Amino acid sequence: MVETALKDKVASETTGTAGYRVPYRVFTDPAYYRREQEQIFQGETWSFVALEAEVPEAGDFKSTFIGETPVIVTRASDGRVHVMVNRCAHRGAMVCREVRGNRPNLECVYHQWAYDLEGNLVGVPFRRGLKGQGGMPSDFDMKQHGLKKLRAGSVDGLVFATFSETVEPLTDFLGPIVVEQIARIMCKPIKVLGDQRQKVHGNWKLYAENTRDPYHASLLHLFHNTFGLYRSTQTGKSVMDASKRHSLLYSIAASNDDASDKKAYGDSRTFDTEFKLQDMSLLKGRQEFDDGVSLVILAVFPNLVLQQIQNTLAVRQIVTQGTNAFELVWTHFGYADDDAEMQSIRQKQANLIGPAGLISMEDGEAVEIVQRSIIGENDATSYIAMGGGSPDDADHLVTEGAIIGFWHNYEKLVGYEFNS
Amino acid sequence: MDRQAGGAKLKMTSATFDRLRLQQFASDLNATHAEFIDEDRLEEWAELFVSNCTYRVIARENFDRNLTLAAIFCDSRGMLLDRIVSLRKANIFPVHNYRHILGPTRIVSERGLTVTAQTNYVVLMTRTDGHTTIYNSGKYIDEIECDEDQSRFISKIAVFDTNVMDTMMVRPI
């Protein structure tokens, strides 16, 4: 069964038929999901966990997930951000039961074991016994029973964490393209505008594909195409880092030429010259970046998308929930120095993104209609070939190369064949 | 209006009567809002709002923190209509039906014929698989211009407790 996918690939290499095939079972088989949790989320990767701006003051905390593991992100009194597993060292209770807040320390409600904001155990009730009875053994060493600490790192206000002691340093894991793009958007202090959470009934890797896919963006999303926010005719690129696990897709709306774009798109449902807005203030914007780039989708493996769509700025965090579901946590932000007009622009343009977003909502449906159709398929595969069928960068937007890059990386990290 | 029951007399003052009247207008307007959405009469739904209305659908986790990010934010009837045309002609979404269940509408304050009112709501959703689920639950905080002929929303905020949105939101709440 597993050999089929490899055979197809070998066959296409030898017969010269270009195109990459992904076996659909990777989206539905729990064995792959388990291996992903080990090899990816608990493995040699850095996962995004928070914006520094979400935990600005000492005592601030946020609870979130890396893969399926609940973690706490804190700003400790040393001023640094720490990340630890949200599980009491005693008998496994969840220590932090709120989504966010501010506390001087962390305390488990079950037996009041107390931890400082770095995860060190600082208090154990009845440690020395009560009225001369009980108590912990004499060799009990509190330093051995802290919350499991993760290595944490921050790049321009984006906090990442890893379970691995051996993974490459964060900036190497991200690579120069990702680091540069993060710096571009996170160029000055930000202000969090709020969060949105979207539960999508599909495998998380379908969203990884979707966010590495410049091919779909103007063909699924009418708002992108009709209003010229994104068209595959624009000046733009699809590029990956050296490992091909991360992807940058960017485009320049000013490169639109409505007449020739219309010609290129022909009768496409998504280029609808009849579709007009009564209130164009929705799309009012301001050029914020000197490079004129108006759309950036930066997919950072495994669980982050950093985006700029016109004047909307956001991070999207993928939280895996089994083979058939994930939660997408959108944290929208602006800059701390936004004037009133810019705040109003961002507020209106927020209608375009997020789970109710006039553009973004449709990706939820796209993922779900795949998941529903591939159930039970052990042998069938997808066929990915737009742009040539290889994991190559492109200096245009008519390609699926970055999707293939993602799968090349997946083959190395997880594999299509393993002893489960 | 007098009523006699077991010897006691219940008299309705004109102030009470006025209050009840406003409460009826506000309640009726919310019932109509729910009905028009559930029955896909969205173009008529937009007419329930004044032309320079505000309509906001916002997660409690943002509202409670005084953050402005809303799932849906419109500050004109034109923007409401644009969302409706988008639903009709542009957006790709799963087939679904809504069913609103509303709690009583409570007048929180009044200034002449303009009232602030609060109503709890639940939106149940049924998709093509035929299962009905609780899709979104919260409260409306409305500013309503009451009128004998047609009351209208000056503003409506739906603050929803359901912080995790199932798949997406294309239809007004």
Automatic annotation (TrEMBL), chain A:
InterPro entries documented for this protein: AhdA1c-like_alpha_C, ARHD_Rieske_2Fe_2S, Rieske_2Fe-2S, Rieske_2Fe-2S_sf, Ring_hydroxy_dOase_asu_C_dom, Rng_hydr_dOase-A
Transmembrane segments: none
Species, as recorded: Sphingobium terrigena
UniProt keyword Ribosomal protein present: no
Key words, A-Z: 2Fe-2S, Iron, Iron-sulfur, Metal-binding, NAD, Oxidoreductase
Protein name as it appears in the record: Rieske (2Fe-2S) protein
Keyword Transferase: no
Start and end residues of each Rieske domain: 46-131
Cofactor dependency: Fe cation
GO molecular-function terms, A-Z: 2 iron, 2 sulfur cluster binding; iron ion binding; oxidoreductase activity
Pfam families, A to Z: Rieske, Ring_hydroxyl_A
